Amino acid sequence: MKPTLLPASILAATLLFAPTIVRADMKAARVFLNKEIGSLSTLNRTEQEKQMQWYVDAAKPFQGLEIHVVSETLTTHNYESKVLAPAFSAITGIKVIHDIIGEGDVVEKIQTQMQTGQNIFDAYVNDSDLIGTHWRYNNVRNLSDWMAGEGKSVTDPMLDIDDFIGKSFTTAPDDKLYQLPDQQFANLYWFRYDWFTDPELKTEFKEKYGYDLGVPVNWSAYEDIAEFFTGKTIEGRKVYGNMDYGKKDPSLGWRFTDAWLSMAGNGDKGLPNGKPVDEWGIRVDENDRPIGSCVTRGGDTNGPVSVYAVSKYVDWLKNYAPPAAQGMTFGEAGPVPAQGAIAQQAFWYTAFTADMVKPGLPVVDGNGMPKWRMAPSPHGAYWQKGMKLGYQDAGSWTLLKSTPTKRAQAAWLYAQFVTSKTVDVKKSHVGLTFIRQSTIEDQSFTKRAPELGGLIEFYRSPARVQWTPTGTNVPDYPKLAQLWWQNIGDASSGAKTVQEAMDSLCAAQEKIMHRIERSDIQGDNGPKLAKPHNLKWWNDYAKKHGALAPQLKLDNEKPAPVTIDYDTLIESWK
Length: 574
Description:
This protein is α+β, with helices and mostly antiparallel strands. The protein has helices at 26-37, 45-58, 75-92, 103-116, 131-137, 143-148, 193-196, 199-209, 219-229, 250-257, 260-264, 304-320, 330-333, 353-356, 405-417, 421-431, 437-440, 443-448, 455-459, 477-493, 498-519, 535-544, 566-573; strands at 66-72, 95-101, 123-127, 180-191, 215-216, 233-234, 237-238, 283-284, 290-292, 344-349, 373-375, 392-398, 563-564. The chain folds into three domains: 11-178 and 402-466, 3-Layer(aba) Sandwich (D-Maltodextrin-Binding Protein, domain 2), CATH 3.40.190.10; 186-242 and 324-391 and 560-573, no CATH class; 250-307 and 487-544, no CATH class. Helices cover 40% and strands 10% of the residues.
């Protein structure tokens, strides 16, 4: 969730496809293919025209219809709104108004439509983090049934669902697809490759810590590296070994629900999310009904792993980040690494890539190549192989049941168009938010890879599957997510100890789950809180059932530090 980014240089293209809309038009499709797509597609020109002809034909029943869709502010969505929407309108005769609003506003609008039944928008690009919410409230058209039923005549035969790398993120426990991914970006480790490969700094680090300076595999190494760089003067600047933000603001909630606890080792093994306990610390039973968040009900939101995770965040923010970071929001902190005084960041979104490779930045060399790289995130002391290791945002097309069928059909055509194989490579070059395996493997990205600091190498690597969004354990994402920033903000500010803050958070989550349970609004899929027991009882229960969470506190929360040479890591992926 997530970065609010300004659009790239796409405005010049917005007037290419804006004639008066009167009818579906293959001539407009050819203009679009010639002027906007060209060879930047995984389809050849014959295949592109075949796909566009299908849209022209499928759109005939909807001529002159005006539909309204919405997504958050992101470079990818600005491109869709300013370039792809006018093109689609010219090609199909369906006028699309693609609104761009803040992410919080998107969630508010979709909540309002779900609660009132009023059709505010005909389709939403809504984070897949709400998959558990959508499945349980039954307000969303599941796309598996839609594509076989009412949406069959408007489902592109060339859509190729299996090509979407986020398909598992938008699939509910009933094995139905509820959302179609539109853009994805991961939360990775970022570091100054030029400093990490500097011979003098490498020698100094080895003499001080006894091991090689490199990409930290675990938090022990990250902490040493943060200490090593903080306070040094490099390139005329005082530098810091960590970057983060701490203001009590809604964006602080994203900082943690976006899988920070999973990096520490919270929850159970399993991909895309741990079961029965996920990275939020919410436990579900064998029927996927949430039964607790606190350790007394088998959850892990306030367990030793979660307390360890938040404690490390607080300590690193205070000791190794610029002092101003403690009063920053996500949006204020995001541009700071590009200013040239940050050595590494454990929590960095790949959606910032485009803004980090602009010529003239302190982190870009004279040849326009990045001085930095991205790599897999380091993990905490409790993490074990088989767990997820970080977060991946997956903004996904969502059709509510309250949208009239004809309008939903027209909106579904648009959703498929902007994610189609004809369009996706070009869109991905603009926004760098990959959704298709075929696009990731396209030769145009092989050529561009050296300019992108490891982004392509990561998305082509086997490690990618460990980065996933919030899963299906969360029964009401909008209601529960807002609790995080308020409670962790108390820990960040020092108003409460970390344990007190996490105790308060898990209790607040269970209060909402209990309210849902009493209302029975989610039926047999909704929460059913378990009887309380102590941490030891639940830990024994987990072991008996081949699980981990909630884990007991380790005697040593700083195991031996481990690093790996970045170039060796990349070569191993190949």
